[in-house]
């Protein structure tokens, strides 16, 4: 019955009554979903898109009734999530939409203007595409907001995964190597080997001297035929065995010493690397007093009060007690303004720059940030090894991603079951 009803609504039209017959497209409600509806026109448009994608992929389409039912189910589920987004106040700004459209254009090798023109040439509406992207972004935010809170990853899970072979490989550093090979065979004379070696040494020195790898190799005369290229990002274990000993010995942007293997002479440059290794960051222990301009306290008055509190602290009053009395940072005022150990990037730039230029046991001049006026007292500085923290964060992110789809599927089933849906 459902199949016949939906097929009828998707047909091109029906005859109207009157002195003449005309064909018009029907637009009727095909499903009531909580406080909203899915219209036949939405279903027709989505079906057209689905069929177009199936044709482009060269895949075999499922039976029409199955395709209609599955497409309608997806529209219903999207509708539920859009309504949730509306209730939660999820909004996508014009700037965020512009960035999303620009990324799509860039992925297709186009400027935003060229992308818009191409869509118009294909008979597709730029505005409709933009609306679809906005819809997808709202749904994604609703999913993330609801699913992320369902995922709990314990320290024990992280430790257990790190102890596995898979976990050890995950936290290995990744290397992006550019390689050039000048072949040498068993028939190559010793004199020719020496000559080729000397020439390759000059290329290595040019690269080390600052010339771009590609530019140096492009200048090679025709009698030297090199092979190789960019190996892309690879874990250490995924590199050819020839490079597994070389990679850890050179840093980002460095070129290894020329070396020879049975296949020939190798020039190897580390284009980039990420992860792995020891990581140390500079941390600062600081406390502050924040004064927020308001209708009662003007911006100038807040700055003057900050300067007065600085003078009082330097005259001997306890900075922590002043922070408890005057600071409007509810997160630190009760602790005497103590923010604990802060890492690079943790604070807003104005705060961080002032903190970096203030000596230990010294109170800064008042500084303005987006939050108000601050005075800072730097208490200590240290170098902290965060290698293990970074390894655990990498594993946590991986395990989160692995659990996300499973939790998302369960959450989607739950909201579908809880929604009021009446298919017409």
From TrEMBL:
Give UniProt keywords alphabetically: Chaperone, Isomerase, Periplasm, Repeat, Rotamase, Signal
The protein in question is named Chaperone SurA
TM regions (residue ranges): none
Q: Which residues form the signal peptide?
A: 1-21
Q: What is its main location?
A: periplasm
Reactions this protein catalyses: [protein]-peptidylproline (omega=180) = [protein]-peptidylproline (omega=0)
Organism for this UniProt entry: Congregibacter variabilis
Chain ranges of the SurA N-terminal domain = 26-143
Is Transferase there in the keyword field?
no
InterPro entries xref list: OMP_Chaperone_SurA, PPIase_dom_sf, PPIase_PpiC, PPIase_PpiC_CS, PPIase_SurA, SurA_N, Trigger_fact/SurA_dom_sf
User: Which cell locations does it reside in?
Assistant: Periplasm
Enzyme kind, highest EC tier? isomerase
What is written about domains in the entry's comments?
A: The PPIase activity resides only in the second parvulin domain. The N-terminal region and the C-terminal tail are necessary and sufficient for the chaperone activity of SurA. The PPIase activity is dispensable for SurA to function as a chaperone. The N-terminal region and the C-terminal tail are also required for porin recognition.
What molecular function terms (GO) are annotated for this protein?
Answer: peptidyl-prolyl cis-trans isomerase activity
Give the E.C. number(s).
5.2.1.8
Ranges for domain PpiC come to 179-270
Q: Which domain of life is it from?
A: Bacteria
Report which gene this protein is encoded by.
Answer: surA
What biological function has been recorded for the protein in this entry? Answer: Chaperone involved in the correct folding and assembly of outer membrane proteins. Recognizes specific patterns of aromatic residues and the orientation of their side chains, which are found more frequently in integral outer membrane proteins. May act in both early periplasmic and late outer membrane-associated steps of protein maturation.
| Keyword S-adenosyl-L-methionine part of the UniProt annotation | no
């Amino acid at each position: 019955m459902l199949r016949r009803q939906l097929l009828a609504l998707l047909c091109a039209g029906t005859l109207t009554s009157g002195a003449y017959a005309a064909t018009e497209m029907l637009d009727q409600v095909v499903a009531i979903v909580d406080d909203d509806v899915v219209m036949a026109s939405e279903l027709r448009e989505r079906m057209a898109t689905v069929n177009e994608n199936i044709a482009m992929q060269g895949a075999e389409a499922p039976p029409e009734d199955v395709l209609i039912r599955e497409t309608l189910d997806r529209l219903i589920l999207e509708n539920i999530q859009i309504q949730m987004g509306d209730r939660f106040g999820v909004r996508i700004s014009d700037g965020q939409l512009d960035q999303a459209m620009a990324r799509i254009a860039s992925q297709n090798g186009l400027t935003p203007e060229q992308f818009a023109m191409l869509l118009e040439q294909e008979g597709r509406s730029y505005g409709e595409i933009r609306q679809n992207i906005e819809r997808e972004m709202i749904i994604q935010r609703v999913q993330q907001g609801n699913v992320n809170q369902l995922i709990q990853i314990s320290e024990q899970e992280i430790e257990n995964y790190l102890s596995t072979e898979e976990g050890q490989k995950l936290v290995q550093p990744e290397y992006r190597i550019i390689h050039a090979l000048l072949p040498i065979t068993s028939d190559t004379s010793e004199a020719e080997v020496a000559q080729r070696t000397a020439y390759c040494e000059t290329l290595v020195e040019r690269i080390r001297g600052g010339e771009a790898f590609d530019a140096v190799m492009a200048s090679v005369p025709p009698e030297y035929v090199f092979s190789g290229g960019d190996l892309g990002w690879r874990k250490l274990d995924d590199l050819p065995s020839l490079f597994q000993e070389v990679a850890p010995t050179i840093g980002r942007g460095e070129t290894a010493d020329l070396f020879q293997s049975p296949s020939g002479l190798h020039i190897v440059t580390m284009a980039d690397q990420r992860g792995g290794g020891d990581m140390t960051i500079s941390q600062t222990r600081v406390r502050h007093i924040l004064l927020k301009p308001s209708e009662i306290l003007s911006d100038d008055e807040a700055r003057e009060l900050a300067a007065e509190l600085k003078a009082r602290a330097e005259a001997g009053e306890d900075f922590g007690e002043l922070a408890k009395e005057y600071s409007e940072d509810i997160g630190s005022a009760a602790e005497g303004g103590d923010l604990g150990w802060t890492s690079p990037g943790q604070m807003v730039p104005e705060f961080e720059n002032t903190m970096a230029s203030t000596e230990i046991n010294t109170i800064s001049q008042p500084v303005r940030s987006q939050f108000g006026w601050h005075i800072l007292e730097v208490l200590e500085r240290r170098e902290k090894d965060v290698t293990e923290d970074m390894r655990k964060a990498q594993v946590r992110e991986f395990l989160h991603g692995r659990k996300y789809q499973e939790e998302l599927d369960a959450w989607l089933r739950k909201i579908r079951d809880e929604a009021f849906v009446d298919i017409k």
